[in-house]
């Protein structure tokens, strides 16, 4: 079973890229973030033609998350991260596929920090930690994946000294991520590639991709019952070099 996550940076603007990548790599399940499309503008028909059933939570101009499956219609279990009924951002969707609970998330960026956006990011992380504990307590196999907008360690960013004040790398952000991981989650990429320089995002500016001046902010977190099934994990880095592509690259895992 191959599962992928991809921040597409506008599903309709990048649809040719997404369909090409799906056709070439054939993941079984795909989590998408930053759809930048209202609910009725999601290209469900084009994705179904490509072999993928979908559930999605759209939002005008920003945010938006979706889960695609080649196994038939995903069984939706959650459409918003619990803990704040006033939060109108479409940043979380969750489904059961092949008995695995898959949470697709687009965590807030949080910049500029400090400030209201950073406060919202930290509150969102607290809610994710609480929901993560709830999921683990159910003893079911769970995967949390998506764009976390968190750089976990210095080895996950090009020239970390330049990011010390950024919301993605501030001590409060990394500490919250450590609290989440301490629940018992496994970082799939680091589990398979503990010492490699691996990035998932490269800015459009200053030839960042050409210089490999990137960040690792798209993650797969596996519950204890999923970890033994992990066979391989990686980043489809080459997709970032395609024309009119996202500033993120797809990340994937394979489970036995």
Automatic annotation (TrEMBL):
Matches recorded under Pfam families: Exo_endo_phos
GO molecular function, one term: double-stranded DNA 3'-5' DNA exonuclease activity
InterPro entries per record: AP_endonuc_1, AP_endonuclease_F1_BS, AP_endonuclease_F1_CS, Endo/exonu/phosph_ase_sf, Endo/exonuclease/phosphatase, ExoIII-like
E.C. number(s) listed in UniProt: 3.1.11.2
Keyword terms of this UniProt record: Hydrolase, Magnesium, Metal-binding
Domain spans labelled Endonuclease/exonuclease/phosphatase: 4-248
Superkingdom of origin organism: Bacteria
Names of required cofactors: Mg(2+); Mn(2+)
PANTHER family: EXODEOXYRIBONUCLEASE III
Sequence similarity: Belongs to the DNA repair enzymes AP/ExoA family.
Protein name (record): Exodeoxyribonuclease III
Lineage: Bacteria, Pseudomonadati, Bacteroidota, Sphingobacteriia, Sphingobacteriales
Gene coding for it: xth
């Amino acid at each position: 079973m191959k599962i992928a996550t991809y921040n597409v940076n506008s599903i309709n603007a990048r649809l040719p890229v997404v369909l090409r990548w799906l056709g070439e790599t054939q993941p079984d399940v795909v989590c998408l973030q930053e759809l930048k499309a209202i609910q009725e503008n999601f290209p469900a028909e084009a994705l179904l033609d490509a072999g993928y059933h979908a559930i999605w939570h759209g939002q005008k101009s920003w945010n938006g998350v979706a889960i695609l499956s080649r196994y038939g219609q995903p069984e939706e279990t959650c459409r918003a991260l619990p803990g704040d009924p006033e939060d109108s951002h479409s940043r979380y969707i969750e489904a059961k596929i092949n008995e695995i609970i898959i949470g697709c998330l687009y965590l807030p960026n949080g910049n500029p920090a400090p400030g209201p956006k950073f406060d919202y990011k930290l509150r969102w992380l607290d809610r994710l930690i609480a929901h993560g504990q709830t999921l683990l307590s159910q003893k079911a196999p769970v995967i949390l994946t998506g764009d976390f907008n968190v750089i976990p360690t210095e080895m996950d960013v090009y020239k970390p000294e330049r990011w010390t004040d950024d919301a993605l790398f501030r001590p409060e952000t990394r500490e919250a991520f450590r609290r989440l991981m301490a629940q018992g989650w496994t970082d799939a990429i680091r589990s398979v590639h503990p010492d490699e320089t691996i990035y998932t995002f490269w800015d459009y500016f200053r030839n960042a991709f050409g210089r490999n001046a990137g960040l690792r902010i798209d993650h797969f977190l596996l519950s204890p019952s999923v970890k033994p099934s992990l066979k391989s994990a990686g980043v489809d880095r080459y997709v970032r070099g395609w024309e009119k592509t996202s500033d993120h690259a797809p990340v994937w895992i394979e489970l036995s």
